[in-house]
Each structure stands twice: as C-alpha cells, then as structure tokens.
Specification:
Radius of gyration: 37 Å
Shape: elongated
Distance between the termini: 103 Å
Number of strands: 24
Largest sheet: 11 strands, antiparallel
Helix content: 10-25%
C-alpha cells in the first residue's frame, strides 16, 4: 500500500473515531432523567409542590410593558437610556427592554422608573436557589425531590437579594427526578399578624341586641316594629324565641319518666336534658312544679335568655326608644370604618402598607368612637418585603 493511501485510511479512521466520541458526549449531556431511567419501572407523573426559595441575583435587564400601549413609541421612555446603570434600550413588539450595566441595582432602577411612569410594569428574571428537598404531591402519592439547580423566574425586582419567598412548582417527575425543568412562580407567603386599627368614621346604621327573659320571650315582632318612634328608621327585627329549658339529670331518667314529661300538654319534644316547649308556655312556676313533681324537688331548671336583633338607622335616639317596646337588656352596636397605619410589623420587620386599607366592622357603640384603636388579627400575604394582599381575620378587642 502506498504511503499516500495509508495516510488517507488513517485520516478516515480518525474522523470516524472523533465522530463516535462526539456523539457519545452529546448523548451524555442532553439525556433527560426520563431517558436515564428508561429501563426502570418508574412512570412519568405530574407533580405539584411548594418550596422556600432564596433570591440569589437578578439578570442584567428590565422589561417594561403596559397593556394596550406601544412603549417603543414613547419618547420619554427612550430617554431612560441616559439613566445611571442603563447600558442601552432594545425595542421589540411594543415592549421595551433596558439592558443594564453589569452590577447595576435593578431594584433601584425599577423603583425610579415606576415613580416616573405610574402604571408601567417593570419585570426581570431572577435566579432562586432551593436548598432542601421539596415534597411533591402526585397521583401516586408524595415524593421528596431535590432541586440542585437554580430556578429562573420572571418577577418584579422588589425582592432583596438573600430574601426568602414561597414558590409554587409544577412538573413531570420520573422517579425522583424531573423530566425537564419545572415551571415555577412566586406566590404570596401567608402571615398571621396582630395589629391595631383606628376608627376613622361611624355610620347611622345600628344593631340593638336585646336579651329577653325566658318568661318574656313570646312577643309580637310586627307590633313592636310598628310602635317604634319615627326617629327609628327602617327598623327590622330578627328574632326566634328560645323555647326550651335545660333540666338537670333528665337524660339519666327512665323512659317512663321522660315519656311522662313528653306527655305534658305544652311540651313539644324531649332531647337529652332539654325540654322543648310551645312559645306561649311562659310560666316558670307551673313548669317548675310539674317537672319537680315528676323528677324530684332537687331538680334544677335553667331558663335561657332569648336574643332579638333590631337593625335600624337613626341620627338621634336613646336606648329607651328601643327598650320601651321590647323590654329586656340592650347592647347597642354600630357600623364603623377603621384604617390601618402606614407601617405593619411582620416577624420583627417593618413593611410599608399599600394604599392605607380600610375595614368595616360592627362594634359596641359605648366602647368605640372615632380615634379609638381596635386590636385585630390580620391575614397578610407578602412577597419579599412587599405586602400584596391583606384581610381582616379576627377582632381581638
């Protein structure tokens, strides 16, 4: 074989060798967890989970957009290229991207843009790490999965580097690995917070809660509504009489004894220690004598109060205007509005409260007035150092 032919054969052999090696390397890099486990008995399964993630860094760009608006035609937006920390601007399909200089403070730049252009959305990609295993729920049960890579999530750059957020993850699991990077989104972290609200307004809407004695429970609510004075406007009564008594030890008596009680003309039903009566049976003397005669003189009877609620509006009235028609004992409540201050402490950290939220509560009129503080428990959703939702949970006092 001639020397040139040998060289050509050797060269062809080297090309085939390197082609095989390159193919082998490519397969090793791109094989997914699903491919790596093709010979196992695991089945791909859809899974969802929640995880605590730590912000590592932001990418060096900011996306600016506003629904229905082509920002690329806004000359003032184009002037942002001169802003400190901005390298240049890229326009595409009405969306503006600010490419930042390396190391620029994306959070500070975004704040300045939002202050200058209210209503414009500013987002960027952020990298988050998850240090511990995540519990995923699947149709085959729960799986603990490690996520050894950084998650890239599009978000508003108002989270401080190093802060923790709650992340919702969705993906296809093959065994205890993902077939591909799971989709991730930041969701609010829920906090339960005790805070003070301040009464800043009262209305003319009242609720009179009237406690009626057992023997005075049988009343005509239509007649009472018609007898309120004119200054009690739009009166409406919600009332159901408590027509039963609690009888000590009745539940332990024989069936014959309870049947004798049940056969009393004014008794409707006997259930345990409770004896249900007709609404017009209001004589404690007669009821006590009848029951003690059957059950013994040491029998005790508990006569519960009945609660009537009168809702009405008025600007000038007295409690006597209600009680002279209803009798009983009265507690007066009123619709009041309350506001939260500018700051709210969560886990020892002060958060700015957005838009000074207000709440409507029905409070005891004699205890609260404009300027008074009310202790409440709030459900507060946060993302990083930002409050994103807030709801009243419980009135504490």
């Amino acid at each position: 074989m001639e020397r040139d032919t040998l060289i050509k054969v050797f060269a062809l052999g080297m090309v085939i060798f390197f082609t095989l090696e390159l193919f082998s390397m490519r397969s090793a890099v791109t094989s997914s967890p699903q491919q790596a486990n093709e010979t196992s008995n695991d089945t791909p399964v859809y899974g969802t989970g929640l995880a605590n993630a730590t912000l590592m860094s932001y990418m060096d760009y900011l996306n600016l957009f506003k629904m229905g608006t082509d920002l690329s035609q806004n000359a003032s937006i184009m002037e942002l290229s001169a802003m400190e920390g901005v390298g240049f601007i890229n326009n595409q399909s009405g969306r503006v991207t600010l490419v930042l200089e390396h190391g620029a403070n994306a959070t500070l730049i975004a704040q300045k843009i939002e202050e200058r252009f209210p209503g414009i959305n500013v987002t960027t990609s952020a990298l988050f790490s998850i240090s511990s295993e995540v519990k995923f729920r699947t149709q085959l049960g729960e799986k603990n999965v490690s996520i050894p890579f950084l998650l890239q999530i599009e978000t508003e750059p108002d989270i401080d580097v190093g802060d923790n957020v709650t992340v919702s993850l969705v993906g296809i699991l093959y065994g205890e690995q993902f077939t591909e990077t799971p989709s991730a989104r930041i969701i609010p972290t829920q906090n339960r917070v005790v805070a003070n609200l301040t009464v800043n307004g009262v209305s003319d809407q009242y609720y009179a809660v009237v406690l009626l004695p057992w023997e005075g429970r049988n009343i005509n609510t239509s007649r009472i509504e018609g007898e309120f004075p004119a200054k009690i406007r739009n009166a409406s009564i919600n009332y159901t009489p408590t027509s039963y008594v609690a009888v000590s030890g009745l539940n332990s008596k024989s069936n014959d004894t309870t049947d004798r009680v049940r056969n009393l003309s004014y008794v409707i039903e006997v259930n345990g220690d409770l004896v249900y009566l007709r609404d017009d049976m209001n004589s404690t003397e007669r009821l006590g004598a009848d029951l003690k005669g059957m059950l013994g003189e040491n029998t005790t009877l508990d006569y519960p109060l009945s609660t009537m609620v009168v809702s009405f509006s008025s600007t000038n009235f007295s409690k006597d205007d209600i009680l002279k028609n209803t009798g009983g004992q009265l507690n007066l409540y009123r619709n009041m509005s309350l506001v939260l201050g500018d700051k709210l402490k969560i886990a020892g950290v002060d958060y700015d409260v957005p838009s000074k939220p207000s709440f409507g509560l029905i409070l005891l009129n004699d205890s609260y007035s404009v300027g008074k503080n009310v202790s409440v428990e709030l459900d507060v959703g946060t993302i990083g150092r930002k409050i994103v939702n807030l709801a009243l949970r419980t009135l504490l006092g």
